[in-house]
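Consortium newsletter contribution from the modelling node. Members have asked for a concrete example of what our holo predictions look like. Here is one, prepared for the CO-5-methoxybenzimidazolylcobamide complex that several groups have been discussing at recent meetings.
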Amino acid sequence: MSEENYDDELDLSTLSDEELVEQMHDDLYDGMEEEIVEGTEILLERGWSADKVLNEALVGGMAIVGVDFRDGILFVPEVLSAAGAMKAGMAILRPLLAETGAEPIGKMVIGTVKGDIHDIGKNLVAMMMEGAGFEVIDIGINIPVETYLEALEEHKPDILGMSALLTTTMPYMKVVIDTLKEQGLRDDYIVLVGGAPLNQEFGDAVGADGYCRDAAIAVDMAKELIAEKRAA
Ligand code: B1M
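And here is the predicted structure:
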């Protein structure tokens, strides 16, 4: 994206915060894991909160990748490298976001639905939920209804979280929720759904308890709905 990416001499620590974030967007775009790790560390050392680094440097960078992927400028291999770089940055932030000495305030099982392998958003939600004091059991990607049910049975969470990034896979959320209803289990769990192509209307239509536009909203909604459920 930027010619600066190819300048081996570029010392990230000499950049201002703003320049560094811009450079990290370029580095994420180019899938440069080491540079993303270094940039993440520098921003943290400069006193940035893990949240701020995540949203401004990493999620912001991935948004640019998303636009060029949509427009046919980037293809799957490049986007995979960008995702790898994003994950390398997230790995540094994870322990910071998950830092909490308190008792878990609730438990969530989360997975990306069958046919869908996108996991960055799901991982982010898991990290933010852990950071907010939830115990999170991440059951991965491409999850069929049977696996969701097994995980619910095994872990007995308060919340079931489902993620979908494709318009072709999001209807599968209804399959899972309908199966819970058929088995008389629907009211045992708070069901939260999220993913870029979803919206409130879709969340309502599939019968979820909440549609979460982003990870921060997922945390707020989880807290709110758990409190309501316990009060009831
Ligand atoms: Co994919 N992909 N992709 N992709 N990919 C999208 C989703 C797409 C919009 C790109 C585009 O065209 N602009 C498009 C979908 C179009 C559509 O359905 N209408 C698309 C496509 C078409 C595809 C393939 C079909 C491409 C192909 O093979 N021809 C293929 C499908 C593979 C499959 O799943 N079967 C594919 C593959 C891939 C990669 C493997 C290359 C890679 C995924 C790597 C990985 O995840 N490990 C990839 C990526 C990276 C993307 C984009 C560029 C970025 C997604 C992302 O990570 N965003 C994406 C473009 C886009 O979304 N704009 C795209 C960052 C992440 C932080 O945001 O996931 O939205 P997001 O999560 C947010 C919220 O949505 C919410 O909170 C998160 C954090 O704030 N949230 C939840 C998400 N899940 C939640 C669950 C909750 C709560 C909130 O539960 C409680």
